[in-house]
Known about the structure:
It holds the Pfam family Pyr_redox_2. This protein has 321 residues and is an alpha/beta fold. It contains 8 helices and 19 strands. Helix 2 (23-34) packs parallel to helix 3 (66-79). It is elongated, with a radius of gyration of 22 Å.
Amino acid sequence: MEVVTVTDQLRDGYDVVVVGGGAAGLNGALMLARSRRSVVVIDAGEPRNAPAAGVHGLLGREGTSPAELLERGRAEVRHYGGHVVTGQVTDAVRDDDGFTVTLSDGARVRGRRILVTTGLVDELPDVPALRDRWGHEVLHCPYCHGWEVRDQTIGVLASGPMSVHQALLFRQLSDDVVFLSHTAPPPTGEDAENLAARGIRVLDGEVTSLEITDGRLTGARLNDGTTIALEALVVAPRATVRAAFFDGLGLRAAEHPAGVGEHVPSDATGCTDVPGVWVAGNVTDPSAQVGTAAAAGAVAAAQINADLIAEETRQAVAVRR
């Protein structure tokens, strides 16, 4: 990643400040820059999908590494006059005609509108060695990584309300799926019936550690000493919003209705209940893949541009009167 400090490049003010430089933020900035809006993307350099080897389900960029995709996006934004800088936003407050955004190094930048695309942090189950294999053999999304583990022995760790659903999804990809109850009670009722009907084994007992051989997952050890051979492990992490600067804006995270963690509520265009603030990507839609997040950034950018045009038109009419 090209490191451009804030003082190197920031101007006094922008039409739009984009906080977060993933797919949603960069695609939003691209749309705004192509609409001749002054825009800056402030990115902390902590993408959610950094551990993954490639981006999947993205037409024309299938298998591209996350780092390469983001570098291409930064170059495209800069090509149209947008700025992309490295920095951590610590505060953002409304002022007379927009917002003042403060970074961790004390630098400040003003924007008339803000697009928040800071994404999420995945809180993983506390199982030794699990985090080390996250994004490799330990995964959560069948559409992001399922093809890569097809026909393997796949364990599904019960870690949230979506775990049974995950097991059924991964059963599409392998005949050998085992549901690990871990610290939750074994599935009952309809859940148990559905798992049994699809031939998904259910094993009771807490997973105390993962077995790693030559840098790859080979199994899971239960609290009774039993070791289950596995080639992949599916978990459902709890998502938490990157919200260090939300208080100054009056922006609030809420529990997502699906029970997967936090999100920032918005309408279909990314407009929040805080005037002048839009959101896009995982920060509002935890299940959004890269393509979905990029599309949401474009939608939010178009709405922001339209909002600015409406404001500028009102001002122009007032001057003529």
